[in-house]
Amino acid sequence: MKILAIIGASKNGNTTEIVKFFEKQLKNNDNSIDFEYLYLSDYPINFCVGCHNCIFVGENKCPEYSKVKVIEDKMLLADGIVLATPGYMFSMSGIMKNFLDHVAYNCHRPKYFGKKAFILASATKWQAKGIFIPTKTWASGAGFEVSSTTYAEMAPFPLKTKEIEKIKSKLSKSALKFHKELTNKKELKPDMGSIAVFYIFRTFCKIMPNILKADYAYFNEKNAYDSKTKWFTKAKISNLKLIMAKFMENQVKKSISKVIDMDKLKEVNGGYKNKLI
Ligand SMILES: Cc1cc2nc3c(=O)[nH]c(=O)nc-3n(C[C@H](O)[C@H](O)[C@H](O)COP(=O)(O)O)c2cc1C
Predict the structure, then answer these.
(1) What separation in Å is there between the alpha carbon of 130 and the centre of ligand 1?
(2) Separation between Cα atoms, residue 248 and residue 254, nearest integer Å
(3) Once rounded to an integer, what is the mean pLDDT over residues 198-227?
(4) Domain ranges of the chain
(5) What is the pLDDT of residues 135-163, one digit of tens each?
(6) What's the confidence (pLDDT) of residue 257?
(7) Which residues surround ligand 1 with Cβ inside 6 Å?
C-alpha cells in the first residue's frame, strides 16, 4: 500500500516530527506500507496568479502545470495521502495554501475516487478549524474520502512528558483509524454535499459552456446529462438523497437566471470580467 505525505512545513520542525511518528504507527499496523515524504519546498511552484485557466480551459493551461503535474501524478499512484501542515496565523502554512490553490480545479472535476486522505496539523485547537475546513473541503471535493483530521499541540517550547504522551496516544489512534479506512474497500457512499456538487456543477456548466469549457467537457465525458448517471462515479446513493440533490439543482437553476445576464452570456468566450468603473 502506497501513502504519500504532502508536507507544507520545514524538514526539521514539529510537523515533520508528527508525520514521522504517524508513519511509525501506521507501519506498526502494516509494515508493508510504502510511505513517501513529499516536501512542498522541494517543488517550488509560483503563486497562483488567478488566470482561471485551470478551471475554465484545462489544468494543462496553468503556467505552473508541469510542476503541479509531478505532484498530481504521485497522488494518482497513491492509495492514500496525508496532508500535513503547521498552523500559521490561524490557517495552514502559505506553501500548503499555494499548493491547494493550484489543485483547486479538482473540486470542479474530481478524479481521486477510491483514495483516502488524512489531514494532520501541528497546531493548537484554536487554529485547527482554520486548517481543517479548507483542507477537508479540497480533499473531498477532489474525490478523496477524508478518513479523519488530527491536530497535535506541538508548542515550540518544552512540553511535560504527560503532554507528549497525550500527543503520541492521539496520533497512534489516528494512525490506526487511517489504516482501517485504507483497508476498507466498501462501495463509495458520498455525503449529501458531494452529491449536490455533481448536480449543481453539471447545471452550471450546461448554462455556461462557453466559460466553463473544461468542466463542460468533463461532465459530458462522465455522461452527466444522461438520466441513468447518478454521480461522478459508481457509488451508493439513496433515492432520498438523489431527490434532494435534484431539488437543489433546480433551485440553483432558478437563482442563476436571476443573477446572470443571459444576453451578455451568449457573447462570451472564456472568462468574463464585470466592470464597476
Ligand atoms: C509564521 C508562523 C505563524 C504562527 N502562527 C500561529 C498562530 O496563529 N497561533 C498559534 O497558536 N501558533 C502559531 N504558530 C506556532 C506554530 O503553529 C507551531 O509552533 C507549530 O508546531 C509549528 O510547526 P512547524 O515546526 O512544523 O513549523 C506560528 C508559527 C509560525 C512560524
Answers:
(1) 13
(2) 10
(3) 96
(4) 2-183, 192-267
(5) 999 999 999 999 899 999 998 899 999 99
(6) 87
(7) 9-10, 13-15, 86-90, 122-124, 127, 154, 156
pLDDT digits over 215-271, tens only?
999 999 999 999 999 999 999 999 999 999 999 999 999 999 899 999 999 999 988
CA of 40 to the centre of ligand 1 (A): 17
Mutation pick for ligand 1 pocket among 89, 91, 150, 153 (CB with most ligand atoms within 8 Å) = 89
The CATH classification number of 2-183 equals 3.40.50.360
CA of 137 to the centre of ligand 1 (A): 22
Q: Whose CA is nearest to atom 28 of ligand 1?
A: 88
Residue 122 to residues 92, 93, 148, 247: CA-CA distances in angstroms?
10, 10, 15, 40
Is residue 57 pLDDT above 90, yes or no? Answer: yes
